[in-house]
Amino acid sequence: MPVERRLETQGIPKQSRPYPLPVGLAAVPPGPRERIPGSTVISFYRDPLGSLTRMAAEHGDVTRFRWGPRYEYLLNHPDLVEQVLVTKQRSFMKGQALQETKRILGEGLLTSEGDLHLRQRRLMQPLFHRRTIAAYGEEMVACAERLQTRWRKGETRDLHAEMSGLTLAVIGQTLFASDVEGEAGELGAALTDAMNSLQRFMLPFYGALERLPLPTVRRLRSSRRRLDETISRLVAERRAQPGERDLLSLLLASRDEHGRPMTDEQVRDEAMTIFLAGHETTAVALTWTWMLLAGDPAIERRLHGELDEVVGDRLPTADDLERLPYMERVLRESLRLYPPAWLIGRRVLMDVELGGYPIPADSIVIVSPWVTHRDARFFAEPLRFDPDRWTADAEADRPTFTYFPFGGGIRRCIGESFALMEAKLLLATIARRWRFRLDSDQHVDVLPRITLRPRHGMYMRLLSRS
Ligand code: HEM
Question: How confident is the model at residue 104 (pLDDT cuts 50, 70, 90)?
């Protein structure tokens, strides 16, 4: 169907679209030519964010590039992002990178497909409803309070490490109940270990690597064993003695429409998935937010002013959050500039048309919040930290999928409300008392792994606000 027609069927006359889609003029989209075979893979591994940004700038909204034995496609237009994540989602499944994480996560929500995914998503959706998760607010604030008792004025700390410990404590408390904080720490270390090893397997010829007796392979197996043992034990304990509202007890108590519970194995996979998906993403989001605030004292002052007015000297609660609109904008803007999930990949299940180009089955398509969020067509002066981009008026002009830090469609992040509530409560609890400034030796650089981490940590000086 021609582009104009497609836009009309979505109820949007083409001429009113501020950013018209490209129309495919050739059978294959443009893309980088490889003078040396494998050069695209090498340049991607050296500098993933730079490679993707350059490709989109040089070749347009649909770029085709070689990835080992096959082609991949980078899409950088809100309508195309929407097609992949929402309107044509049935033509896709998760990409190779996510398939690889099955070695750790099993068939949890993040990695499962088709009917199993749909069944699990329906079962778990109520657990992540805004009203259900509001009950975790107090625990989140308490975790942030505990952390600050260890901080001293004037000292320098790695805020990335601090935020990782904090979100790990929060997910440990909310998922497994309060008495396992120490264990959550150990689990977190094993999981990080496992995911780091896995990262190396996300190369085009990963299958062959796994059969070799490499140290990475051995480390991956041993981390997986450690994780399995701990989570299986926690599941057995909770089954014997259910808690009142921890997510693990809720997972165990949930029933599908036929009244069937999950098997222990399914509960294990879901618990592991929430544990992984639920802490590192929020930790990096907070770390980048502290860095951005430190770089713009006027924005920081405005945030503090709002907090002083709404929260004052007491501890923040989940009910306060809707009265903190500026903090909401600060967070949204931080997720624009530093989207923790910087790449979303899909494998094409059946031949599909995107942007006027035929995309054959079995290819991989990529959409990247990092690239699209920093595109000057959608965000003026895209590198500027400007929370006021998120006033209702400013937002009204922008197509929805110019901004997708939580993905979209049936695979949209189930933990979005949890993450936003957590991030805001932790920000509020900490910003009541502290300001941070980058250490003079700190060099800030991004390290795009499974999430977007700061490459050299984020060493900041702790300054008291009082
Ligand atoms: C700032 C924090 C977070 C960000 C930026 C984020 C981002 C994302 C994105 C982009 C996806 C979709 C991936 C895809 O389509 O391939 C996703 C999926 C998911 N996220 Fe999050 N996430 C965050 C926090 C959380 C939290 C706190 C939890 C759990 C407590 C969580 C649990 C999940 C799960 C289970 C999925 C898979 C959903 C499905 O496929 O049905 N996330 N997340």
Answer: confident
Question: Cα of 33 to ligand 1 centre, how many Å?
Answer: 34
Q: What is the pLDDT of residues 420-464, one digit of tens each?
A: 999 999 999 999 999 999 999 999 999 998 899 999 999 999 999
Q: Say how far apart CA 361 and CA 351 lie, in whole Å.
A: 5
- C-alpha 369 to ligand 1 mean position (Å): 13
357 lines ligand 1 (CB under 6 A): no
d(CA 396, CA 390): 9
Atom of ligand 1 nearest to the CA of 112: 40
- What's the 412 CA to ligand 1 centre distance in angstroms? 7
Whether 273 lines ligand 1, by a CB cut-off of 6 Å, is yes
Phi, psi of 93 (to 5 degrees): -130, 175
The confidence score (pLDDT) of residue 210 equals: 61
Nearest-CA residue for atom 9 of ligand 1: 406
Cβ atoms 103, 220 nearer than 8 A: yes
- What pLDDT, in 10s, does the model give residues 286-303? 999 999 999 999 999 999
- The Cα 182–Cα 173 span in angstroms is 10
Is the Cβ atom of 29 under 6 angstroms away from ligand 1? no
Instruction: Look at 236-245, 368-377, 447-456 and tell me which has the smallest mean pLDDT.
Output: 236-245
> What does the pLDDT look like over 3-55, one tens digit per residue?
333 333 333 333 345 667 666 667 899 999 888 888 888 888 899 999 999 99
